[in-house]
């Protein structure tokens, strides 16, 4: 039985969809004014794995991932480039789709764009004003009154009295707010700016209202899962809850899911620190499946650290799989209905049903690798392995071609010692599967561990 960690309740909960056999899921997508970066890749791949597994579990999944194609950043970038904002957004939408395909990310069921839902956004804003949750300022802006919504702060755990001015806005501009904590639903446009006509004058939607309008139009007033990146619980998702529930009078989302942050060499990823990487910059250096495997090898809620050594380790893990598959290129993945009858599927799903614990699911797959390597008649196990891999979107390459695609680079001493420490702790925790995985991964990368009473030493081989 599937259990998912709900950000709202701060605990794992048994997943029960609103409609039996069907899952409605909305994930906040990109604001398309630049190329997607590594943090975007984390969200894209995490929810791709989640949607793949839900479908493999027998659910009909309606997966909606929006595109924000009107925004202050978009308009500024288009103005800097001297081009129409639509030309800018279309170019970066195409680039995003190219990045997704290279990472093996399947297309969502629907990909609504904010500019296609202006009428629905205006209608929701008007409803909020009529119900007393929002107000039109004299200058043409429309704001949501945070004080009017009693449950504000439940998702992020923030207290209304602790919020400061500007916390709910993307830009710092002079406003006619009644309360500094209120946030924009509709933003007036200057005479030379892009605008849509509305009852409050020419303008464009605020960021938060876009997702409320698109999600409820595509999935209904209440749906099963809402996901996004680690920076979205506040203010974006908090504001979505407030304005959606105020407008509809119904619970907005049953389960909130958020992917973990990405760090680079143990520092926060930031352009100012010079450690900011786009997906395509990374894919120019590493095989796309190595990057995907790196992104899924940690639990989706945990932070991950991007480094040269981390990518080398991911490459080594995939090498072990592909070395095992050499000679079995003609073996097809076991069909899902047959795969469900195997012990490996039961172990795999036990891990995935525990809040999509891909790390443990991969350990099950490494167990199959050991069985295959020790069995002269291993084709059935190979079929099982390929079937499980399909649910994670990996092992789709020709084994020989993959193994020849990139050479092996030497691991740093600091990384080796870090892995030995992790292995030592795993043995203390009696997690022998993890202990063996670390040892085998290091050996695949040219480092042999030697255990003795005094501790573990190593040598390059």
Task: Walk me through this protein's architecture.
This protein has 461 residues and is α/β, with parallel strands linked by helices. It is built from 16 helices and 15 strands. The protein has helices spanning 38-56, 72-81, 85-102, 118-130, 207-219, 233-248, 279-283, 288-296, 308-325, 336-339, 343-352, 358-373, 379-392, 399-405, 413-428, 432-444, and strands at residues 3-6, 11-14, 22-27, 60-65, 134-136, 142-144, 183-188, 203-205, 223-228, 253-258, 262-264, 267-268, 304-306, 447-452, 455-460. A 4-stranded parallel β-sheet has the order 4-3-9-10, with helices on both faces. A hairpin with a 2-residue loop joins β14 (447-452) and β15 (455-460). α5 crosses α6. The protein is elongated and about 75 Å long. Mean pLDDT is 92; it is low at 166-172.
